[in-house]
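hi!! sorry for the late reply, been swamped w classes. u asked for the two structures so here they r. pasted raw, havent cleaned anything up. first the sequence of the first protein and right below it the tokens
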Amino acid sequence: MTTMTTGSATLTRDALAVLQPGFVGTTAPDWLLRRIGEGLASVGLFGRNIVSAPQVAALTAQLRAERDDLLVAIDEEGGDVTRIEVRTGSSFPGNLALGAVDDLDLTREVARELGRRLAACGVNLNWAPSADVNSNPDNPIIGVRAFGADTDLVARHTAAYIEGLQAAGVAACTKHFPGHGDTNVDSHHAMPRIDVDLDTLHRRELVPFRAAIAAGSKSVMSAHILLPALDPARPATLSPRILTGLLREELGYDGLIVSDAVEMQAIAGTVGIERGSVLAIAAGADALCVGGGLADEGTVLRLRDALVQAVRDGELAEERLADAAARVRALAAWAQGARAEATPGAAVQEGTAPGATTGIASDIGLVAARRAARITAAPSWRPLESAPYVATFTPVMNIAVSSETPWSIGAELAELLPGTEGGTFGTDSGAAEVLAAAGERRVVAVVRDEHRHPWMAAALDALLAARPDTVVVEMGVPRATARGALHIATHGAARVCGRAAAEAIAGV
């Protein structure tokens, strides 16, 4: 039998404090406000919660009316993974573009401006940056979300990003510990496994996380990946050897440890979210991210009750749950103080999109995207003067990228070359369909990770054979050979990356 040293109310508050749930709607539902009053210390925002900057600001104000030190978190990496600009595409290029430029001051300024915009909307915890070393070019989930495949480059840009983001009063959450870059499985769907030795892990995967700790990252997110060299039985999120032994004790990290979403199949499809939540807290996690897929009161109550029952049954030390809750509250206190100290910048104006601001600082994302574009032109290349046809070859997207978020360059090119038209083409399409749709127009072929999709490469080969004057825009990881009359590697599919490519095509 377990001896309880605190009352049931305190135990329940601690269990609620370690949850970071999502919800449905653009205003806070009654159940969420009620649970905040009962001890919930964090809330996560997703694209479904966002319409405009003023609306987000009003939403976070509504939440903080219940608890003024509430952590409001978001998964806002910029680039391909955006929530604050989920329906328009991001005003900031993602990590791969910043790594391609390799200017630490630029990375720092981009992160600071992104943080300033989040802070102006009342967000004070960002589940970013990704510190993964994208060492496996076939990685289906990281790719352009990483600063690159070079360990030292990833480490220095991770640190610069953290410095910039936290200078704006928004806590960073460096992910996905101990490194998701050498996987070819998406942990949203199954359990990835990294079979490398300890020496490789320390020389490659862990270097950026050491840099993040040195830079003062306020939180670190664990990955649902199995690393047999560290723990042959449990994935990182559930492993005391990895979260406590490696991250806490060996690397000396004393900040908040956040789990990746517990409803991902690597957890939900194996031990289940209730058992997984208990094991994660016992292993050393302090907060549980949930709500991307499960965003209801029932989920919150199930996880709360599972944690409380685990303490009562002796499966989870009461002191461990109390310590986890205390770390959440400590970060909330830091964020509250940082919000008071940070300069808020431009006021949020009614009617603006979440990313829309004015002034020179607001252009930093486009500046970065232009610098990231890598252009290879044939000797005969001349900028287009008439409206082309944009053929976008669309792969199956990884689940971290919202299906609502537009990409490609058609809209941006139409602003510069009015009359531009286009279409999307999938695995069952080929060059013949593109040529029939384009007619006499010049073709701009937009691809994404061509090297990972044989059907895409074959369609592009056939298109170039028929129309050598085709322009090729690669908006993923640029590993395939540059070809076409003009080849542009944007290093990401953010809206500003599309704009930079469109400017190159039109000669602006």
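now the second protein. again sequence first, tokens right under
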Amino acid sequence: MTATHHTTVELAKLARVLDRDPADLAFLATLPPAALREFRDQITDLTARREARRMQRVGAAAKLVPAPIAAKITEAAFGPVLAAALAGSVDPTRAVAIASALSPSFLADATLTLDPRRAVELIAQVPGPMAAAVASELISRGDYLTMGNLAGSVPDSVLRAALPHASDLDILQVGYYLEETSAADRLLTIVTDRVPGVIRATHDADEWPKAITLLALLGPTERSKLANVVAAQDDEVIDGLLAAVEEVDAWDTLLPVAAGMAPEPLQRLAQRPAMQNPTLLTKIADLALTQNLWLSLLPLATHLSPTQLHTVAARVATEPDDSLTTLIEQAHTENHWPTLLPVALALSTPDRKRLASLPVMHRPAYLTAAIEATATHNLWPEALPLLSALPTATHDTLATVITTLTDDEFRAAVRASTTASPTTLLDLVIRQPAPDRARSFALIETIPDLESLIATLTTADLPTWEALSHIRTELSADLRTSLAEQATLCGLRTISTQLAT
């Protein structure tokens, strides 16, 4: 979507250079915006080179008369087009002196064909009041194209002097015609205090497509700042944005924005009614998987409800093994395990086992990173079922990684294990070397719901019971007694006897 709108902007700028109606250039609409801009610059450069010698002669003559007289001659004889062409051929200080004697209306006319690239020094010396007067004139005409063309070249001081003359909606329109990411970032920084008003005006005027185009032009930092401000608005504004994104199919723009949003605004975005639509969520997930936006989807996924996550996970599960491997590798490289784990847990049981069977999931570095992320963010309820699906070949690595957990992190894992894969953690602890195992069991005995953990052991966990019996001499008398009582309840009399002795 945004490429189409950027193309529309470039065609308007090219039409200005060629003095044609944009509709006459519709046949160029299939070209990428960058190609249209390069073509426009080539035309401007060619025209400037052709007129360079004549402009230099006229510029030299302008030095021979006082500035007020030169201004009169410029306005009466040359006209705004020639005046703009002369701008780069006259000493900047002299040019500003002449311009100060010209009317804002004439200067505004001259800026229509002014090439900012050839008048950098002149633009830098334009006084704030003069810039403000010209800006006011251009805005009153609704000539946002010229304003956008100039805004990327003028110093911040000039923008600060000019923008108070623009309404909130005017600022959006100017931003729509900016050419450079740096210019868009500068504009947003300068009008930071007006951003909420711009957003409200955008919604009221139903100009979301232009705002989305500007959003795509911003750099990651400013884009996220703007998105956070949007997410702080009234529900109707957020819903208006989401409706517009869907209408113009701009999820490829919004997803990267969401990736950089703060947690609270991102959660609010995820909870809006539009985001509850399974069809839409599947579409977003499909876009993320096919347009290299996977890492942009993951931060959003952490704020989705279980129902929403199941929808996203179902689409992820349709990917072949090699694609899933790539997705996991990307998540690992960018340290996205905290955002990947909720998606992995939302997979169906067969798909979760399939994911756990992938060789990439068995790499020690990946297992270590996954456990560290789980401990740091207390994601044990999400991680333990996934760990239980890993093959036994990975258990020694997992057991070693668990020894590095702090006491509090380990206790959190134990508490989670009472409801999520209860034997997974016990099996890993049993695999630890004796000194580490002693520490782990000592910590296990300190949790308030120890009895609940022991009560989760059933006859289905016979390998765990046998392993506990084998290391029974390392267990405290109280723990052995509790385990023996549970073994009796399970009908495991031999193991109960062994544990009790």
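hope this helps!! also noticed smth abt the second:
The two ends are 73 Å apart (CA to CA).
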